[in-house]
Amino acid sequence: METKETNLLAVPEEVQTEGQEPFLKIIYGNSESTSTIDVDTNIIQHGLRAIEYSKKSEYFLLKATKNLIRKWNFIELNESLEDDEITEEEFGEILEKDAEKYTITLRDIESSSDVLIIADIIDKIGYTLRDFTTDEVSELFSVKENQLVNHVDKFRNLLKDNDEIR
Amino acid sequence: MTKYVNLGNSIEASRTDITTRKLKKASSSVYFEGVGRFFKYKTKINSNIKITEELVPKEPRISPQSFLDLNDELDGDIFEIYTDTLIDTKVISNFSNVHGIQSGRINSFTYAKIMTPWRFILEQRLNE
Prior knowledge:
Low-confidence stretches of chain B: none
Mean pLDDT of chain B: 89
Mean pLDDT of chain A: 89
Distance between the termini of chain B: 26 Å
Order of helices and strands of chain A: EEEHHHEHHH
Helix content of chain B: under 10%
Order of helices and strands of chain B: EEEEEEEEEEEH
Strand order of the largest sheet of chain A: 1-2-3
Number of strands of chain A: 4
Number of helices of chain A: 6
Strand order of the largest sheet of chain B: 1-7-6-3-10-9
Radius of gyration of chain A: 25 Å
Low-confidence stretches of chain A: none
Oligomer: heterodimer
Structural class of chain A: alpha+beta
Number of helices of chain B: 1
Distance between the termini of chain A: 56 Å
Strand content of chain B: over 45%
Shape of chain A: elongated
Helix content of chain A: 55-70%
Largest sheet of chain B: 6 strands, mixed
Structural class of chain B: mainly beta
Largest interface: A-B, 22 and 19 residues
């Protein structure tokens, strides 16, 4: 990226006043004039969260697409074995050599919000979590099934507690 | 040496015996991060799986809740099963002329979990 020289100087400063929401004050200017912008930090936080959500959402969508392709590839390879087009030894060698093409990896769930994002994606494609078994969701989005069940249970208990409080 | 029948009950073992009305073909190859690669299967109806050899060391690899004792068994309708190697079963009975019973010995690591218990167990739990 090309960098251009400028005589504009910007000074950001976080301001916290009693009884008021914190905001970010940016003073910018050059030798002739200066201006000030006050930015609500909540807006920045919301923006950052939206970016994070969108990045994670794209990550899980790509995972789901890749995992479906891996599943198709595996089923095709398994059919070749059943039709005696390849031997069991060759089947094992192909799987070993090209794991990326055939094998779905189940990983640890980084945070509870990942499960909410997965539920949101399922909702956007016209289903709910209840329409799938936990192993199907786990396989589709590359997450460990036991951890998925624990997170879903946690959310269910939270909702139950909230209902009881009301 | 216990029979488990509830939703989510699981076993892990070095060798198991399986009997089911229908074992579907392996549906995917799955790598559990930090554990290893397995073939994934599902049974369709009336399934039983029994531990014939315990894990050495006797520690669960996939789920900390798994039962590990010799002769522990799962009984139910639909199981999900993960194994190190492909499962080979044979039809041992076809008395109804419609449905056979598939039976086999799995001579490698097996993880099995009840996905759908017997209908009466499910109804009992739902009414609790």
